[in-house]
Amino acid sequence: MSVKRIALFGSTGSIGTQCLDVIAANPDKFSAAILTAQTNDELLVQQALAFKPILVVIGDADKYQKVKNALAGTATQVLAGANALEEAAGTDVYDMMLAAIVGYAGLKPTLKAIEIKKNIALANKETLVVAGDIVMERAANAGVQILPVDSEHAAIFQCLVGEDNNPIEKIILTASGGPFLGKKPNWLVNVKRDHALQHPNWSMGAKISIDSATLMNKGLEMIEAKWLFHLKPNQIQVVVHPQSILHSMVQFEDGSMKAQMGLPDMKLPIQYAMAYPQRIKNAFPRYDFRKPNTLTFEEPDTRTFRNLLLATEALRKGGNMPCILNAANEIAVYAFLKNRIGFLDMTEVVERTMQKITFLEKPSLDDYFESDGEARSFAASLIQM
Length: 385
Ligand code: NDP
Ligand code: MG
Fold this sequence. Notes:
By secondary structure, the chain is of the alpha/beta class. The protein has helices at about 15-25, 40-50, 65-70, 85-90, 105-115, 125-140, 150-160, 185-190, 195, 205-215, 215-230, 265-275, 305-315, 320-335, 345-355, 365-385; strands spanning about 5-10, 30-35, 55-60, 75-80, 95-100, 120, 145-150, 170-175, 235-240, 245-250, 255-260. Bound molecules: NADPH dihydro-nicotinamide-adenine-dinucleotide phosphate (NDP) and magnesium ion.
C-alpha cells in the first residue's frame, strides 16, 4: 500500500485530532495533505508544523495573517475565508477526504471532493441528512466510495462486507442513550449545558454531545443510514444499548444477525475507513468477555426524547424535511450551548420549524440550500422571542 494522502477537513475537532493520531501511528500508510480549522488557529498551526501538509485552511479570514506568519518558512500554503474550503477540496493534492467538519458546513467541500473523484471517509453525518440523495447519486456517478466513520454505520458497513447479493431485512442502530438515559421531562427541563456535554462513553465535540443527550444524534443517524445503505424507513430500528459495545447490527432475510463489536473508540472506525479494505494492527485496549460485564438493550423512550420521533417523521417524509430538521437543530443546539434556551426547548424549535417551512418532495441542491437558510432564519426568530 502506498502512502495515502488524507485531506482532513475539520482537523482541530474531536474526529480530526483522532485521525491525526492514526496518521502519526502509521506514517508508512498515511500522510496529511490538507488540514482545516474554522477558528482554532493555534492548534491548526501546531498540527501543520508537525504534519507538514501541502495546504491548510483557516475559515476565519481574520486569522489568515497569523497563520501565514506562523507557517512562514515552511512549504505549507495557507488559504482563508468562506470559499477556501471548497477551493482546497478541489485541489488535486490528496487521495481521500476525511470529512470531519461539524454540521451543514461540511456539505459543500464534500461535494467538491466527489466532483474531483476523491473517495470520502465520512464522519460529517449532516452532509447526508441535508442532501443524501444528491450526495449518494453524485458519488455513484463519479465512482466515488463513501466510507462511513460514524461508529454505527461503520459497524453496519463491516457487517455487509461479503454480503453483496443478500438483501437486508433491517438494521438495528444502537444508541447509548446519552447522559440522561432514564430521565423524564420534569427533570430534563432544568438541564444545563455543562451537564449535557458529559457523555458517559464517548468524548466528542460539543454539537454531537448535545445531539447525543437529546437523541437527535440517533435520529440523524437513521437518516444517514437510509442513504448509505439504501434502506426504507421501516428497515431502520433503534435500540438503546448503554454500554456501547455492539456498535450496530444487520439482520438478513433469513433472520440471521451480524453485529460489529469493540470498545468505544472512534480511532477504530476512523482507521478502518482510511485503510479500507485492509485492517491495521494496533494496540488499542480490547474488550474482554471474561471480565464481569452485562450488555443490556432496551427500547428508546421517545415520549421523553421526542427528537427521535421528529427525526423519524423527517425520515419518512423525505424531501427537504431532513434538511429543515437539521438546520433547526443546529440553531437550537448552538442556542442551548450559549444558555439562550433550555434543554427541552431544542425539540420545540425543531418541531415548529418543521411545521413552518414549505415542504418540497424532490428538492434540487439549490432548494436544499434555500430550505436550510429559511429554516435557520425561522428557528432563530423563535429563539429571539
Ligand atoms: P468538533 O466540534 O470537535 O470539530 C469540528 C471541526 O470542524 C473543527 O475542526 C472545527 O474547527 C471545524 N468547524 C466547525 N465549524 C465549522 C465551519 N462552520 N466551517 C468549517 N469548519 C468548521 O466536532 P466532532 O469532531 O465531534 O464532529 C465532527 C463530525 O463528525 C460531526 O458531523 C459529528 O456528527 C461527526 N461524528 C463525530 C463523532 C465523535 O466522536 N466526535 C462520532 C461520530 C460522528 P475549529 O476547531 O476551528 O472550530
Ligand atoms: Mg454515531
